[in-house]
Amino acid sequence: MSAPLANDLLLRALLREPTPRTPVWMMRQAGRYLPEYRATRAKAGSFLALCTNPELACEVTLQPLERYPLDAAILFSDILTIPHAMKLGLEFEAGEGPKIARPVRTAADVDALFVPDPASDLRYVIDAVALIRRELGGRVPLIGFAGSPWTVGTYMVEGGGSRTFDHIKRMMYGEPALLHKMLEVVTRATIEYLNAQVAAGAQALMVFDTWGGALSPATYREFSLRYMAYIAAEVTRENEGRRVPLVLFTKGGGAWLPEMAAAGADALGVDWTTDLATARAATAGKVALQGNLDPCVLYAAPKVIEAEVARVLASFGHGEGHVFNLGHGIHQDVDPAHAGAMIAAVHALSPQYHREEG
What we know:
Layout: H1 9-14, H2 35-44, H3 47-51, H4 54-67, E1 73-74, H5 81-85, E2 90-93, E3 97-100, H6 107-111, H7 123-136, E4 142-147, H8 149-158, H9 166-174, H10 176-200, E5 204-209, H11 217-234, E6 238-239, E7 242-243, E8 246-250, H12 257-261, E9 267-269, H13 276-283, E10 288-293, H14 302-316, E11 322-326, H15 336-349
Parallel strand pairs: 1-4, 4-5, 5-8, 8-9, 9-10, 10-11
Antiparallel strand pairs: 2-3, 6-7
């Protein structure tokens, strides 16, 4: 039997239930801005070796919780574990990011894709989830995650990162049926992967649609949001007698928040280019909101950080359903003390926006 949660603020906020203050965590909170992470990464030998070692993945997942009073742990992994399991030849080149050795660009390439079995092909992730959950001992909830099918698909087709997305957009406009066929396989794989994370102990889920903002409104609906809605309909949403909240996050997706709110998730991530007041009005109380401090604020002095935290909290305003976060991942050269200043400011300033219980 798993330990009861000592701190369930995140889960309550994601379900728009009352909390005494706004919970806070950071995207990429286990990462290169922490010297202890860099030491563990050096011990592992490579980023991929770190991701595929459950004990070391657990170690780096827990590192920010030892340093800061955060309200959640997020699994240390990568959004490209699925193409890695599909045997597409994933490598991470220093300074250049991920590379896919065998990009998916033809009908034969798509036909060769398969849905990996999480119990075998992605066992290292599932083992990491179970180990992290055990080591947390009920301190805070554990967030599991995956990339959105569109975002993962961009890496699979482009062969790595891209500024123009020309290969996948050629497929999208020239062979849309082929792209849909590929995205359907990735979506099935993502659903099975997320469900395996929940079965292993993940208590909330997040889908990162990093590159949805590269699409037009019509193509976003057809090639990104459509598949995230499939995920929302099929992932496990109840486990251990409790709701498993699902968060969808499209970077650059502020214009589509009303449609995203209808996709079936419990919460939406909002990047820093949309005020939370605007997002709250656009979503009309249908979902919780997560965000949305500009990560570059953390380069500033602590007093500036506190003022910007106050601005974000005021933008959401009074009431339930806000999880404080950055508008994207923390940058690797941020002073860890500045992340601490942000968290302290949320703790100090957010209670005034929550009604007293009782």
